[in-house]
């Protein structure tokens, strides 16, 4: 018997065993159990803002492990129970009901999410490495810089960032996880204004940068640190002050000057743009951030 035939036999036997076991089970027993668990969570622990369900795959059929959907969970009744107990509650989109907070997993959208022309509430679900639970042998670690870029990218597109960590079998947090949490925490100490309370900005960011905005504060995150000068589109006449967020130092800028003589060795500034002058040496932070204070309308 070759390996391929042996594997096929194992899978067929597994399918037969699962089909037999499933034929003897009553999903309604699990539905009652699930409702009681949810009821306990929503009545014994005070105000809950967000309840996160998982695993609805009614559109998939893996043979021996067919996906479950809203009929199997009785999701309509489950949602009704949740909102009766805590009417303000937010629910995600994994009850297979076609609504709820959108939860792309291990994926970053390229723009703010919309449905029928209306903004969609969403969050990016990301791991620190290749799996959701603790895996001693998984070495696909995302760097602190990559995780931070994901956070900034998500906020710049009106999303929330859900970052998973998995304790080891002793219930302790892995050293590599702590390193990344501390690195992001250190960055947040100096730059939290550019993330907390911020969202999408209609201004067009330079290449390999992200804008976030909170009122008249526009934050430019430099994913790739440029040499000396950076063009900011559409900001001419709209800026009050510019500074680096890590140390508060002023950043100088200039706009189009019709009387300036432009030679072939100088950059041409469009009338609607500004050019900022940066330190040649990158600030000693993971992602430098420039805070742009806009003039009041």
- Spatial gap, N to C terminus: 78 Å
**CA-based gyration radius:** 26 Å
Number of helices: 6
Q: Which class of secondary structure composition applies to the elements?
A: alpha+beta
Roughly what fraction of the amino acids lie in strands? 15-25%
Helix content percent band:
25-40%
**Reading side by side through the largest sheet, how are the strands ordered?**
7-8-13-10
Residue-averaged pLDDT, rounded?
Answer: 90
- Report the order of strands and helices: HHEHHEEEEHEHEEEEEEE
Indicate the low-confidence ranges by residue numbers: none
What's the story with the biggest beta sheet? 4 strands, antiparallel
What is the total tally of β strands?
13
Q: What gross morphology would you assign? A: elongated
Q: What does the model show?
A:
The protein has 297 residues and is α+β, with helices and mostly antiparallel strands. It has helices at 3-23, 27-43, 70-73, 75-85, 144-156, 175-191, and strands at 50-51, 90-91, 114-115, 118-119, 122-127, 159-164, 209-214, 217-222, 229-232, 239-244, 252-255, 274-277, 289-294. It has a four-stranded antiparallel β-sheet. Helix 2 runs parallel beside helix 4. The N and C termini lie far apart (78 Å). The model has no long low-confidence stretch (mean pLDDT 90).
Any chance you could write out the topology, listing elements then pairs?
Blueprint: H1 3-23, H2 27-43, E1 50-51, H3 70-73, H4 75-85, E2 90-91, E3 114-115, E4 118-119, E5 122-127, H5 144-156, E6 159-164, H6 175-191, E7 209-214, E8 217-222, E9 229-232, E10 239-244, E11 252-255, E12 274-277, E13 289-294
Parallel strand pairs: 1-2, 5-6
Antiparallel strand pairs: 3-4, 7-8, 8-13, 9-12, 10-13, 11-12
Helix pairs in contact: 2-4, 5-6
């Amino acid at each position: 018997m070759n390996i391929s035939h042996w594997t096929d036999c194992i899978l067929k036997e597994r399918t037969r065993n699962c089909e037999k076991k499933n034929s003897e089970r009553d999903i309604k027993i699990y539905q009652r159990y699930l409702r009681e668990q949810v009821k306990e969570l929503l009545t014994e622990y005070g105000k809950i803002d967000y309840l996160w369900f998982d695993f609805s795959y009614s559109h998939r059929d893996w043979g021996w492990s067919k996906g479950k959907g809203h009929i199997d969970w009785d999701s309509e009744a489950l949602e009704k129970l949740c909102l009766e107990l805590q009417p303000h509650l937010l629910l995600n989109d994994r009850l297979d009901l076609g609504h709820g907070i959108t939860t792309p997993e291990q994926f970053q959208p390229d723009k703010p999410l919309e449905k029928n022309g209306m903004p969609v509430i969403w969050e990016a679900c990301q791991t620190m490495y290749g799996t959701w639970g603790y895996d001693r042998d998984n070495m696909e670690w995302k760097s602190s810089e990559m995780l931070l870029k994901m956070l900034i990218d998500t906020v710049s597109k009106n999303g929330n960032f859900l970052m998973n960590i998995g304790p080891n079998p002793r219930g302790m947090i892995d050293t590599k996880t702590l390193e990344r949490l501390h690195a992001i925490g250190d960055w947040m100490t100096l730059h939290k204004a550019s993330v907390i309370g911020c969202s999408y900005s209609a201004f067009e960011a330079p290449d390999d940068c992200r804008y976030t905005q909170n009122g008249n504060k526009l934050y430019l995150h430099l994913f790739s640190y440029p040499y000396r000068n950076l063009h900011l589109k559409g900001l001419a006449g709209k800026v009050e002050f510019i500074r680096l967020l890590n140390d508060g130092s002023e950043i100088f800028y200039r706009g189009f000057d019709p009387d300036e003589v432009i030679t072939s060795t100088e950059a041409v500034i469009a009338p609607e743009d500004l050019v900022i002058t940066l330190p040649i040496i990158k600030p000693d932070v993971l992602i430098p951030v420039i805070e742009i204070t806009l003039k009041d309308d």
